[in-house]
UniProtKB/TrEMBL annotation:
Membrane topology: Multi-pass membrane protein
Molecular function as annotated in GO: antiporter activity
Listed transmembrane segments: 22-40, 47-66, 81-101, 113-133, 145-165, 186-207, 213-231, 243-263, 295-313, 325-350, 356-375
Lineage: superkingdom: Eukaryota
Localization in the cell: Membrane
Gene: LOC130499773
Keywords: Ion transport, Membrane, Potassium, Potassium transport, Transmembrane, Transmembrane helix, Transport
Organism: Raphanus sativus
Protein name as catalogued: Cation/H(+) antiporter 2-like
Amino acid sequence: MDPKLLFCLPQGDALFNPLNTMFIQMACILVFSQLFFLLLKPCGQAGPVAQILAGIVLSPALLSRIPKVKEFFLQKDAADYYSFFSFALRTSFMFLIGLEFDLHFMRRNFKKVTVITISSMVSCGLLSLAFFYLLKPLLHIKEDYFTFFLVLFITLSNTASPVVLRSIADWKLDTSEIGRLTISCALLNELTNVVVYTIIIAVVSGGSLIGDFFLFIFMTGALILLNRFLASWLPKRNPKEKYLSKAETLVFFIFLLIIGITIESYDVNSSVSVFIIGINFPRQGKTHRTLINRLSYPIHEFVLPVYFGYIGFRFSIIALTRRYYICLVIILILTLVGKFIGVISACMYLKIPKKYWLFLPTILSVKGHVGLLLLDANYDQKYT
């Protein structure tokens, strides 16, 4: 990327640099999301709904239709900044999700989580296969049918785990049995879909899949071991301090970004590796306490709202034709039907109380995260 852009120097006739406009956009998202949250909170709506609506307000569907606003927010070089910043936000919150994930609950309820996840994915897969031949002519798909089927399957079966996690927390269900079960199912579902997505990208880009996977596994394992060493060594440098210094905390995040950027440079999504690094981080002691303390507030109050707003900002309904509206309605119906059939079947098998039969499939039907990953797929340009 041009160094002038990195230093926020406008080029040519550009009045503003895309990096500057991106931060202004973030501020607008935070302001609008707070307003929507105040309006929707009495209705029982969670924070992500307000934040996604804030992004939609700023998107080309509404305010960005105004020529001056569109020229300001949608500059020619803005896509690179938005894509990279989206990656940085995603890396930070996936690491925190791994740090906060309840491993003991997952071990105790592994059967429930896997049965619900597999059942919902199987039902969505069968629906994808059944309606594949209907959607193929509507979308004018004339080649690469296998990839289209996999994308359709991911679209129907995926769950946006960050949205689920934040919603469960806003509803004060994160310490309840059903809340933790929902979060675990959402994470397992999304990570499975990301793996499938990674395979799609590897096949489409024609890369060396097996060799790259071994490299990523090695890098992830090496950073896990390095984190274990640093987590025990750094607290000994200042044993009287309750927390690590900010510089010491930054070391962990720098290594994490290096791993993430390296993996993404192969056109492979790094979310799974980042989550695994977080979940394998030592859970006891000063280092874990420091990371939770330093990351929780900024990620929950700034990073996730901006990321959810970014989901809404990518929503461009004015670009859809009548044919795509029909496909959108069909896919929404198939998603709900697939989730309800799969999750309720699993609930019947696992003897989960009937009062949760409506809640579980509904909350596991939320979308947005994996969709952004598919939109950000770029085979020609790298992050590095």
